[in-house]
Amino acid sequence: MTILSMAGSSGALDPLPKRKMSYFSNRYVVGLTVTAGIGGLLFGYDTGVISGALLYIRDDFKVVSENSFLQETIVSMALVGAMIGAAGGGWVNDAYGRKRATLLADVVFTIGSLVMCAAPDPYVLIFGRLLVGLGVGIASVTAPVYIAEASPTEIRGGLVGTNVLMITGGQFLSYLVNLAFTEVPGTWRGMLGVAAVPAIIQFFLMLLLPESPRWLYLKNDKAKAIAVLAKIYDPDRLEEEIDMLAAASDDEVQPEKSVSYFDVFRVKEMRLAFFAGAGLQAFQQFTGINTVMYYSPTIVQMAGFSSNQLALLLSLIVAATNAAGTVVGIYLIDRCGRRLLALTSLSGVIISLLILSGAFFLQSTSLCGLHTLHGNCGTSLGWFAVVGLALYIGFFSPGMGPVPWAVNSEIYPEAYRGVCGGMSATVNWMSNLIVAQTFLTVVSAVGTAGTFLIIAGVAVVAFVFVALFVPETKGLTFEQVERLWRERAWGSDGSRQSLLAAEA
């Protein structure tokens, strides 16, 4: 554990006074963030494109149109791959660095995209989805950590949020592609195959970028670490950052071997940090976001709009709202803080889900009923449901979109950051898988109104969780965040107790 000596214990968790940087004051940082964020673009594009492609895959493969479980598997197999990729990606990050992990993700994603494009049957398509998921899973761990470790403290949340903006931008792009390919033969093949392009672009751009300075310093490659930091900070600030890294390195209890997944649970403060981080990731999914993004065209059809093209167009509006809300989140996250932003976001999500549930309940009890799904009846209530979806995204995207990824990129010590980031991302993908694999089944069992009401209940639990277990990390250095967890675990004498626990 890192122990950073600072004068005055009463102000131990106060942000350090320093010359503040703005988001665009350093072109190098912006370029690094955008390049690393292409991983988020891949993540978002895959999330969005499958929802539109599925409408046409059903048309091409009769067995898919007749089997809802096979439809869910086509969506969910990427999530299985992402779970595996995220779990292994944490170890790859710590062992081989953030840069090599990103390059690996790009290669695997590209191969998967080409396999999907050429798939002769649904089962080869599912294999391609697995490969794409592996790449997305590795990228989902790597990009936030890489950006956070190269970011000045005062804008770290917003820069990590840029990765989430790339995710939402990828989703928006996917719906544009969905619409563009609606009249092209073999529509879904083009939708899925074009995903290889950004992965190839990121691969070559990453070859020009350095490794994370904090990872280099941890691996005792201090000269390279300082050379990278010199491109980020002015000379005065550079000296301060190097001093903090040196103090952290000198006082850190280095593990004799690579940190394992089980090591996370042996130290009390690590358990607390992982519980908070993994809980945020789980609730991000269980409050319904990727239900909306994966199945938004299907939800729009449930709302009474039968045209594939109209469903995709309305979903494009939902994706645009998601991207716009993320921009608001980037602006607010380093001003209002992570915790307040998440609580406000969840409050709006609960209200929006209740509106959605009410819209579908009213439609199901109208003269038209849900049995007129492919007719024009109930269009007014359908528009009400679409407005509810847009409100949901508008509340979710500024808070529960970026906050879980930002918090997980900054709450773990350097030696644990890759492993814990991978584990928490795996929780995210596992939760994502459960939602994707069960959503249509739950809708069939309890109806659309009941499904959204259940999700609203989960959002209430999420609100309580954030209020009780997630601390504010706005403006804190990595070392100050470590101290925060030690004090939560052991009280004011946290440093000594932590050392004793580590030695044990």
From TrEMBL:
Q: Which CDD domains match?
A: MFS_HMIT_like
TM segments? 28-57, 69-91, 103-120, 126-147, 159-181, 187-209, 272-295, 310-333, 340-362, 382-407, 427-446, 452-470
NCBIfam families linked to this entry: SP (TIGR00879)
What does the sequence similarity comment in the record state about its family? Belongs to the major facilitator superfamily. Sugar transporter (TC 2.A.1.1) family.
What GO molecular functions are on record for this protein? transmembrane transporter activity
- GO terms under biological process: myo-inositol transport; polyol transmembrane transport
Q: Which PANTHER family match?
A: PROTON MYO-INOSITOL COTRANSPORTER
Location in the cell reads: Membrane
Q: Kindly give the InterPro entries that the UniProt entry links to this protein.
A: MFS_dom, MFS_sugar_transport-like, MFS_trans_sf, Myo-inositol_Transporter, Sugar/inositol_transpt, Sugar_transporter_CS
Keywords in UniProt for this one? Membrane, Transmembrane, Transmembrane helix, Transport
The protein's name in its UniProt record: Inositol transporter 1-like isoform X1
Q: Which SUPFAM superfamilies match?
A: MFS general substrate transporter
Q: Which domain of life is it from?
A: Eukaryota
**Gene Ontology cellular component list:** membrane
Cross-referenced Pfam families: Sugar_tr
Q: Which residues form the Major facilitator superfamily (MFS) profile domain?
A: 32-474
> What membrane topology was assigned to this protein in its record?
Multi-pass membrane protein
